[in-house]
Structures are given as C-alpha cells and as structure tokens.
Amino acid sequence: MDSDASSTCSRSSSPELAVDSSFFSNKVFQAYCTDRETGQPRSEKPSQNTGSGGKSRARADLCKDDMQDLRLKVNGRERKRMHDLNQAMDGLREVMPYAQGPSVRKLSKISTLVLARNYILMLSSSLEEMKKLVGDVYGASGQSHSARRVLPPTSAAPASQLQLLSLAPSLHSLVGSTSQHTIMPTLGQTPHSPPLAGYLGFPAPPLPTLLKDPLHLSSGYRHFPGMPCPCSLCQPLPASTASLHNLSMGK
DNA sequence: TAGGCCATCTGGTCCT
DNA sequence: AGGACCAGATGGCCTA
C-alpha cells in the first residue's frame, strides 16, 4: 500500500467491508470449497485438535452450507478487525510529524510505529527539559517574586506564552537546530503538512531521526523541506537527540 | 525479477 | 458457545 506510486492509497488500507465476489473468486476460498468437496485436508499442516470435543468437532458436524456461512462470518469479522486496526494506524499517521498529502507516500505500518515511539520519546525528553528550564527561570526569579521581571512583557501575549517563547531557543537547541531540515514553519510546509512545533513560535525541530532505529527502513520517500523523512539519507543524528537513539527499540 | 508491504483467509488459543 | 486475538500462509501490487 505505501508502495503505491500513483497515489497514497490506490489499494486502500480500509476497503469497503463486503463479502463480495472477490472473496468467492479467491483462490483460497475456491481451494477451501474444493477440499470440502473432496474431503481432503486443505493443508498439509495437521490439525492440532485432539478431538476432545472442541469447535473443530462441532464444525465437522455442520453441513457444508453451515460451514460456509460460518467461515464467511469469521472472515468478515477478521476483515473488520483488521480494517479497524488500519483505521487506528491511519489515525496515528495523521498526528505524526511527517509530511502528508496526495503526493507523499504513506508511512508503512512498521515505520509508523517506530516513528510514533521515537516521537513520544522525543516529546517526553523535551517536556522534561522544558520543566527544568521553567524551574530554572522561576528559581532565578524567586527573590523578585515575579517572572515578569525576568521576562518583561513586550506584547499583548500572556506571560506564560512569553516565557514559553523565551524558552524556545533552549528547547530548540535541545532537539538540535543545525539540521538542514530546520525551517520556519511558514516556509516549507506543504498544504497537507501536519503542524509541527511552529505553533510554539520557533522553528520546527528536526525530526528525521525519529525513525532512527536498528531497523533498516526502505528508501524512496519523498523529501520535503522541513519535514522529517525516514529514509537513510535523512538519518544524521544530532548530538542533542542522541539519547533518543539510545532508547531505540530493543529487538 | 527480487524484495517489501499489504490484504485476506485460516486454524488455534484465550476470554467472557 | 461465540467472539477477539494472533500468527502463518498465500497471493497481489509496486518499486528498485
């Protein structure tokens, strides 16, 4: 699916749930029916059932039509389950800091999961650093009873926002600001790009390393300025985010 | 053409 | 007993 070139999902990950003719034309199903007709085992793999009166035995008592109906029901449920899983995966992709759009290849499932994991780790790390910085700010201004003396208001923005803006450079340096991927939020975003950290008032953190992990992900991703890419060309790991790499998935 | 990714079917297992 | 979950098998589509 993600390998589609003409579109992001010429083969939808969540096709319409329907037991249509495609199922009945399916070779597996045809083989299934054939085997039922001949009474031969459909697979070389012997049944693990010990004949202790389980479902298999009950199914053996069913007539062919009942068996077929049951199989259709089970297949439909499994299909729906997988579609729900794919929907959840799509929902995860939507919130990931990765270029999205009709001309961008969809992240594979494994890439989505790896990216999500590392993204969470990066956010957690950023949050911790932010807490430290906030603590430092309030700690330094403790004698003056107000952070406003440290951060004189220069606009109508709330004090909290001003403090956030003042912390932005530090936060940004935490995640690395020298990457070629760094760009002002209004410059490099595609119409379908998800919001990055631009809403915080500082350049979006480079996130190409979010997918840095022992897995070798396939290349062929489209490159967008300012957008992270899981391909091998976009894997330089800023020293400030090296800790994330150290937390990579252990397999 | 090989490899990656995916959807689907299927049987087994576990849970309610 | 029925449904959810899981993993293996299979085949299709796409890209390098």
From TrEMBL:
Pfam families: HLH. Signal peptide: none annotated. Keywords: DNA-binding, Nucleus, Transcription, Transcription regulation. One of its GO terms (molecular function) is protein dimerization activity. It comes from Sinocyclocheilus rhinocerous. This is Oligodendrocyte transcription factor 3-like. Residues 35-45 have a biased composition (Basic and acidic residues). The keyword Nuclease does not apply. GO terms for biological process: axon development; positive regulation of transcription by RNA polymerase II; sensory organ development. Transmembrane segments: none annotated. The gene is olig4. It comes from the Eukaryota. Residues 69-123 form the BHLH domain. Residues 35-62 are annotated as: Disordered. GO terms for cellular component: nucleus. The keyword Transcription regulation applies.
